[in-house]
Amino acid sequence: MSWAGPEDIFLSTSLASYLDKKLLVLLRDGRKLLGVLRSFDQFANVVLEGACERVIVGDLYSDIPLGLYVIRGENVVLIGELDLEREEIPAHMICVSVAEIRRAQKAERDATDLKGSMRKRMEFLDLD
């Protein structure tokens, strides 16, 4: 078993600068989580306090409260600090309820699935 080298300490100190700050965490499955960083380890496992999942579909968005949230480091793609002085959401975005955003997500997913199935059905036509 090897001990942490200088490069490992640099990673830790860079996350240490985000402690007690509001962050946006982008996960491997595409979800976007917001919350205050309370803890982390050398594997980039993080603990967010007051976490919420921001779901965006077209011009609609909703923040789904999650509470205290532990994220496994292998699922983290990006961590960034939010600028509290700037407006988080563009003016054209409309905040909707969780039920409405779930319906919009399902409609978007169904449209994508239909498009994919239609493309498969049309493969026999060599349009090139």
UniProtKB/TrEMBL annotation:
SMART domains: Sm. The keyword Ribonucleoprotein applies. It comes from the Eukaryota. GO terms for molecular function: mRNA binding. Belongs to the snRNP Sm proteins family. Component of the heptameric LSM1-LSM7 complex that forms a seven-membered ring structure with a donut shape. PANTHER family: LSM1, U6 SNRNA-ASSOCIATED SM-LIKE PROTEIN LSM1. This is U6 snRNA-associated Sm-like protein LSm1. It comes from Musa acuminata subsp. malaccensis (Wild banana).
